[in-house]
From TrEMBL:
The species this protein was found in: Streptomyces piniterrae
Entry keyword set: Hydrolase, Metal-binding, Zinc
Record region (Disordered): 1-24
Protein name: adenosine deaminase
One term of GO molecular function: adenosine deaminase activity
Domain Adenosine deaminase: 267-443
Length: 506
């Protein structure tokens, strides 16, 4: 469990310190001793502090079992053939969702349809198609329970020793569709924006989004008992949101949602970023890819608050013509000026890939790497995955989950796969955890002197997370910076974790 902000800022901390962070070979030695022991390795990795999850879609992050329970509570129905959740009264061919609670065979059918459980590509439906099809099947459930979904995500994060999550979702989607329909499309982005902002409709939507978020966070806190005498550990997990925009629709809808994301970040500090989602190989996503990047570049020139992370390079030769593999990541970085990219699987097919990797390293553009998702959707697994290419080029890497409920995994599984399949060392895993907080869009200055440096800024150089000692000037930094506070908490938790293994025999 992460340290609480109050303990991290305790004025009663010891008054002696030392240079940090300390590199301790004891924990690294233990890690190597358990690397090939699955049970002991998972126990080690589960207990290791792992920072944050920067790439998690809220609608896909919760296990199918929980979604079935929500559907039953809502009195929904589930189509017996397609497994799609629909409203009551149950139409012909549908059963009450409650049946998926009590009927084992029906339950397993729904779980397999709503996730990658037991999926095998036998030449019919591909992993790619099965994965993306799941979302429309349980949409009627997830659309009504974002607060409960968020509580589930926070519980899993806390259980896996993560202290920060940055979920993706779209507030006020139907209202934004209505606004886009009333305005229509104008390729002159300046005029398009002016039309959308004329009158008060966009601002009404922004106000409604803030109220919607208030309600969802209240539901989240209530589900976890955060305001009771016995709050769950998940209450300590910090949450910020990225506004997600579907990339498979008409330009008028996409620009309207992008504008709403940038506007919302200006008015609500809980929204810190904008992202584009859905299948990158979809015909509309391919046709309009460069238009989408120009939209984001334009909005970045107008707004200064919202950060940008983009799904880019979630492609293979089996999905798209080779030409489409040559520019998506580069355009995301150079045109849309993305600060992070998600997936980045086809990086070596980009034009001048080594130059692109060098640019990412120089600009500190992080890549969010969901190993299981890449294997399930794209069939890019093991040595075919570019993870080690990114690491060799010194590109910041943050392991992430993508859709852990659909994939049937958690972040510990991603760290395990990085260890056993890709051969990462303990220090590389620790770097990934630190990167996840360094490149989080949560507000405030970093604890580190410079990105990737992992040496404390001058204010905190003589403070010590091993003892809890905080100088007054370091305390001032933490009080002014939610990001630095998260990082200090992580270093405190990490110091305790490493100390517990430093002299431990296998």
């Amino acid at each position: 469990m992460p340290s609480s902000p109050s303990s991290a800022l305790s004025p009663n901390a010891p008054t002696t310190g030392r240079s940090w962070p300390v590199q301790d070979s004891g924990v690294e030695r233990f890690f190597e001793q358990v690397r090939d022991n699955p049970a002991r390795l998972r126990a080690f990795l589960r207990s290791m502090p792992k920072g944050g999850d920067l790439h998690t879609h809220l609608s896909g992050a919760v296990p199918a079992e929980s979604l079935i329970a929500f559907a039953a509570d809502d009195g929904l129905c589930i189509d017996s053939t397609t497994s799609k959740a629909v409203a009551a009264p149950c139409p012909a061919g549908a059963r009450p969702a409650q049946d998926a609670v009590s009927d084992h065979d029906f339950r397993q059918q729904v779980i397999r349809a709503w996730s990658m459980e037991d999926f095998k590509d036998t030449g019919g439906e591909t992993g790619h198609d099965h994965f993306f099809a799941a979302f429309s099947k349980f949409k009627a459930v997830t659309a009504k329970h974002r607060g409960r979904l968020l509580a589930e995500v926070a519980k899993v994060a806390a259980a896996n020793r993560q202290s920060y999550v940055e979920p993706l979702f779209t507030p006020q989607g139907p209202a934004l569709v209505g606004l886009a329909d009333s305005v229509g499309w104008n390729p002159d982005l300046d005029r398009m924006r002016a039309s959308l902002l004329a009158g008060d409709r966009m601002q009404q939507i922004i106000r409604a989004a803030k109220k919607e978020t208030d309600s969802e966070l209240a539901e989240h806190r209530a589900a976890l008992g955060c305001d009771t005498a016995t709050p769950q550990p998940a209450c300590a997990v910090k949450v910020r949101f990225d506004f997600q925009v579907g990339r498979t629709y008409d330009p008028k809808y996409i620009f309207t949602e992008l504008l709403a994301g940038f506007e919302l970040a200006e008015h609500d500090p809980r929204y810190v970023g904008v992202n584009m989602v859905q299948a990158e190989d979809h015909p509309v996503a391919l046709r309009d890819y460069r238009l989408h990047m120009r939209m984001i570049r334009y909005l970045r020139s107008v707004y200064r608050t919202a950060h940008v992370t983009l799904h880019a390079g979630e492609l293979t030769e089996q999905l798209v013509p080779r030409q489409e593999l040559r520019f998506h990541i580069r355009d995301a970085i150079e045109t849309a000026q993305a600060e992070r990219i998600g997936h980045g699987v086809d990086v070596m097919n980009e034009d001048r890939p080594q130059q692109l990797l060098a640019t990412m390293a120089r600009r500190q553009v992080a890549v969010e790497v969901p190993l299981t998702s890449n294997c399930q959707i794209l069939e890019v697994c093991g040595p075919e995955h570019p993870l080690r290419r990114y690491l060799a080029a010194r590109v910041p890497v943050a392991l992430s989950t993508d859709d852990q409920g659909v994939s049937r995994i958690d972040i510990t599984d991603e760290y395990r796969q990085a260890t056993t399949v890709h051969g990462l060392t303990y220090r590389q895993l620790r770097d990934s955890a630190r990167t996840s907080l360094e490149h989080a869009f949560i507000q405030g200055r970093s604890l580190w002197r410079s990105p990737g440096d992992h040496r404390p800024t001058w204010e905190c150089a003589t403070s010590d997370p091993h003892t809890g000692h905080l100088t007054p000037i370091c305390r001032s930094l933490l009080l002014s910076s939610p990001k630095a506070t998260l990082q200090w908490q992580y270093e405190t938790d990490l110091a305790a974790f490493e100390a517990s293994y430093a002299t431990r025999a296998s």
